[in-house]
Amino acid sequence: MNLAEKLKQFSASNEVVEPIGRDSKVLLVDGLNSYLRCFVATPTMNDDGMHIGGMSGFLRSVGLAIRQFKPTRCVIVFDGKGGSQRRREIFKDYKGNRKSMTKLNRTYDFQTIDEEVTSQKHQLRLLINAMQHLPVTIVAPDNVEADDVLAYYANLIADRGGNAIIMSTDKDFLQLINKNIKVWNPVKKKMYDVDAVLEEYGIHPNNFIILRTIVGDDSDNIPGVKGIGPATLKKHFPELANETMVPWDHIFASAENNTSKAAQLLLNSKTLLEMNTTLMRLDEQQMSGNTKAKILDQFDAPIGLLNKLGLTQMFVHDRLMSAFPNLDDWLLNTFGPLTRFSHKD
């Protein structure tokens, strides 16, 4: 090795490594989506025989994602009061089909709907109290949906040069995916990036809102255009697989020159598609400047410390210890690494 090569090797080995900031890799959790999923699927009971699957399942599910992806921080977003009001003003039946989930996929069943609703609320309060002792950021702003807040945060993190992982089973988040934003589906145990969306749907994330708008969303009671699914859409509009965003004007213009049944269905559904686009797009412009300022302050606020003693005392009081064996090790191994940026910045 000559002198020049040695100097080059020495220089490379002594390069300054940029410090990792707290927003370098952020796990963004769709709070209500994750909580309700765990409430339905997890039959865990406390020492008094009360169902606590929603609360315990949520903490374990988020904890598993933290250990798996090793984020620099975790932000959990819930819907606040009046979050759906803006979309209900556009479509009065928005989320109007929400029903009880009694007897779905668990061995523990409630006797009445009222009993189930009471348990949901009680467990959610327990969960919020528990998270006050963890080094995570909790956000639940009024008059804005969690989906819009998560989208705002994901784009903010990307603009700051970081990476965001959105944890949710909601397909609407796939429209946000780019090189800095991914979506983790904990049910499928699948990480969606651009390639994964293209492989599964044949449509680029930049054009995914068109698919969502056309097929609708049963979970939010948003009607779609019957007779048009992903396969039909890809057949008539293969350009949706490209990175370039395809405008609705192009879709409608192409449909006018097409005599197929699908084309006629699209042309006859313009009003519905315009409404669905407004309902389903995750765009920060749908929030007021005042709302953005508030949720930005919450995002940039100091992160609390891990209060192991406080959480243990809470679990003992509420008879939750049996649901969290080896609590000390689990807390330290799961949430301990997140304390790196607690009360900093």
Quick rundown:
The protein has helices at residues 3-13, 31-41, 53-69, 85-90, 113-131, 146-159, 194-201, 208-215, 230-236, 248-256, 261-267, 270-280, 289-300, 308-317, 327-334, and strands spanning 25-30, 73-77, 137-139, 163-167, 181-185, 190-192. By secondary structure, the chain is an alpha/beta fold.
Please give the structural blueprint.
Blueprint: H1 3-13, E1 25-30, H2 31-41, H3 53-69, E2 73-77, H4 85-90, H5 113-131, E3 137-139, H6 146-159, E4 163-167, E5 181-185, E6 190-192, H7 194-201, H8 208-215, H9 230-236, H10 248-256, H11 261-267, H12 270-280, H13 289-300, H14 308-317, H15 327-334
Please, could you describe this protein's structure?
With 345 residues, this protein is α/β, with parallel strands linked by helices. The protein folds into two domains: 25-202 and 286-338, 5'-nuclease (Rossmann fold, 3-Layer(aba) Sandwich), CATH 3.40.50; 205-280, DNA polymerase, domain 1 (Orthogonal Bundle). Helix content is 46%, strand content 8%. It has helices at residues 3-13, 31-41, 53-69, 85-90, 113-131, 146-159, 194-201, 208-215, 230-236, 248-256, 261-267, 270-280, 289-300, 308-317, 327-334; strands at 25-30, 73-77, 137-139, 163-167, 181-185, 190-192. Strands 3-2-1-4-5-6 form a six-stranded mixed β-sheet, with helices on both faces. Strand 5 (181-185) and strand 6 (190-192) form a beta hairpin. Helix 2 (31-41) packs across helix 3, helix 3 (53-69) packs across helix 5 (113-131) and helix 10 (248-256) packs across helix 11 (261-267).
